[in-house]
Amino acid sequence: MTSHWTEDVSACVNARLASFFEEKAEEAQATSPLAGELLLAVKDLAMRGGKRLRPAALFAGYRAVCSSGQVQQTGDVGAALELLQTYFLIQDDWMDGDEERRGGPSVHASFTQRYRDPQLAASLAILAGDLAVGFAFELLHRAPFPTERVREGYAAFSAMHFEVVCGQQLDLLEHQDVSLMHHLKTGSYTVRGPLRLGALLGDASAAQLAALERFGEPLGVAFQLRDDLLGTFGDPRVTGKPAGHDLREGKNTVLIADARDTLPAEDWHKLKHVLGHDHPSAADLATAAALLERSGVRARVEARLSALIAQSEQALQGAPLTSEGSAMLGDLLARVATRDH
Description:
By secondary structure, the protein is mostly helical. Helix content is 77%, strand content 1%.
């Protein structure tokens, strides 16, 4: 294992996805003359960058309980996590009306460009998402682990799927409990779920699973807080999304939840006017972002983020995990704390 283990994980997952898509291209060609179009949509998004954080968390969880574990052993499951992510992104982009993803068109936007029919494009995007999640479970089934471990992995994978769907429902309904929404929608399958999945495949003890839960729970929330900060204050040249993206979309982020609870009525009215605007100007977005900063909302969210990172750091102290795995978990911690996209 090199010191750049996350790069090894990314290379392994990318290679596994590439070979899987090549295999599926032949299957699609033999199935339907048009099936390749859906496959290509899934492939294009899955292979178009991405942080590969979930496969990294998966392998770190595996190595934390199995010191002899190798990257290749979790390749199928890491690729399955990326396809689960692809499925969620396809749906999320359509629900939010996002036209861009990872520096290129979202799947429904790409189909709209091709067919000039938004309803048809949305329908095709849904089918592409169905394909992606089916592929995810297929790859999970292929994982080279004993049957009992794969069975436990299936249960953990299905739990992630269920929680994210429930979290997305809360998001769509703009539920007031933003913390619960983030716990379900992001925390479950970004850090906490992949860590647990990797540990189960490594035959973790109850004490090891509990330690990883204590580490992963605050880190998953920290990931979402960083995501919310980047969605409002991030550099579009780095994030791949327009400036003030979350404000532009009127998303119910932790920043907005804090502002709703703490801003004076006059300031909240100004912010709400921007959030509810169909096409806010760059000046309006800049004013809204400045308001969140000047009022202390941004500083409070950043302080909470720092506290969560410290909580995860503390969870590693004395944890019954392998030294190699603990070091990898520390790397993940730093990656989430400092990420800029």
